[in-house]
Amino acid sequence: MHVAADLISQAEHDPLAASVLVTTSPELADAVDKELVGRVAATKHTERVAEALGGKQSGVILVSTVDDGLRVVDAYAAEHLEIQTANAREVAARVRNAGAIFVGAYAPVSLGDYCAGSNHVLPTGGFARHSSGLSVQSFLKGIHVVDYSEDALREVAGRVVALANAEDLPAHGEAVSARFGGSVR
User: Active-site residue 155, yes or no?
Assistant: First the structure.
């Protein structure tokens, strides 16, 4: 019941909203599909929700294992991701690509929208593969500072020269080896 309600809540946004269920359970998928029929008909924005749920952006993906499901959700990189499975915390900790993760049956996305305090400006369209939600960090400029001693540079000099040569940028390596009389191991 609550999985269907959660799918509808996301579909309510607009006709192109994506609501995707990834599960290892055909029985759960069937039960959710049955529950959706009555709930979609009863929701205020029936047409919008029905169009979103019936669109190519929405659906049910059956997987064989939770590991397969994790590969799917990481590839999909959802703006909002609910993990409702056994050991939900442990499974959520393994997700690498999502804007925000809602863990367990009592953490619906709606909670994050209105009360929990999670960010609501999140990457959409799969951009969670390489971007995070908006945060204070988004408005700060970072500067990387590299400060090595002679001994520290000598220790890695050979690696720098090897990588520079592998990229066919020998002057990069020479900039390091010149500091040590031109010889680096």
Answer: no
